[in-house]
Design a protein that fits this description.
The chain is of the alpha/beta class and about 230 residues long. It has helices spanning about 40-45, 70-75, 95-100, 115-120, 120-125, 135-145, 165-180, 195-200, 220-230, and strands at about 1-10, 15-25, 30-35, 55-60, 65, 80, 155, 185-190, 200-205, 210-215. The chain starts with a strand and ends with a helix. A hairpin with a 2-residue loop joins strand 9 and strand 10 (about 210-215). It has a single domain, classed as 3-Layer(aba) Sandwich (Rossmann fold). The mean pLDDT is about 95.
């Protein structure tokens, strides 16, 4: 389980996050939702070690991960799929996947078959340059690259943004399969209400850098989510 306790973050002197607390259990999808600018991406950047936070605690399986770097977070088991994908355009699909080896011991540096089971198109295109893939294919590559590290926590930032509907369905099925394996916690930031509602086990609603409501999927409806976003 990932536990986030009263995490605050600033950009310069501008406060972005204020005492954010939630838990992300293993075998479940925790979906972070809110309108643009409420701090969702900043939260994932803090969890992944990409941006320092000012106060608070982050714990994974009972171990404090306070103020770790991005490399340290990856080695501890936190994988981050950023908004915009950040695929290396001049490197092949295979080479992009191999960049995930950086935080692994030499004996573990191989691409698991399950990555290609989740995203078969990547096997077909393994010699094609990352920049030549469609947006949806790049998104699948970015998720696959994160899975190379064998994470305990998978952070996904807007995985459906700018993606064609058939690939959104494929990504949704992949997330469901990863959740059902029961060996990782998934934290999903998503604006697509339909996708988020299908994927989530519970919701963390944010407003102005704070968590203001938490909801279990089995105790709310899609309309409840829409109404919460509108408040």
């Amino acid at each position: 389980m990932l536990e986030v306790n009263k995490v605050s973050l600033k950009y310069g002197q501008s406060p972005i996050l204020h005492d954010v607390s939630f838990t992300a259990p293993v075998g479940q999808v925790t979906t972070i939702m809110g309108t643009n600018g409420v701090g969702k991406t900043s939260l994932l950047r803090a969890l992944s070690g990409r941006h320092p936070y000012t106060t608070g605690d982050i714990t994974l399986d009972g171990e404090a991960l306070n103020h770790v770097s991005a490399v340290q977070a990856a080695r501890k088991g936190i994988a981050y799929v950023p908004q915009g994908r950040e695929v290396f355009p001049m490197m092949s699909v295979a080479e992009n996947l191999e960049t995930g080896f950086a935080c692994l011991p030499k004996g573990d540096r191989s691409v698991p078959d399950r990555v290609f089971d989740l995203f078969p198109v990547l096997l077909e295109m393994k010699d094609r340059r990352g920049g030549d893939l469609s947006g949806g294919q790049q998104q699948q590559l970015a998720i696959a690259r994160a899975l190379i590290t064998g994470p305990k926590v998978l952070l996904l930032d807007e995985p459906t943004e700018g993606i064609q509907p058939n690939v959104i369905q494929q990504i949704g099925r992949a997330i469901a399969q990863l959740r059902d394996r029961g060996d990782m916690a998934i934290v999903l930031v998503e604006q697509n209400v339909d996708f988020a509602f299908r994927a989530a086990d519970h919701f963390v609603m944010m407003k102005r850098g704070e968590v203001w409501r938490k909801m279990q999927k089995d105790k709310c409806t899609r309309q409840d989510i829409i109404d919460s976003l509108a408040l």
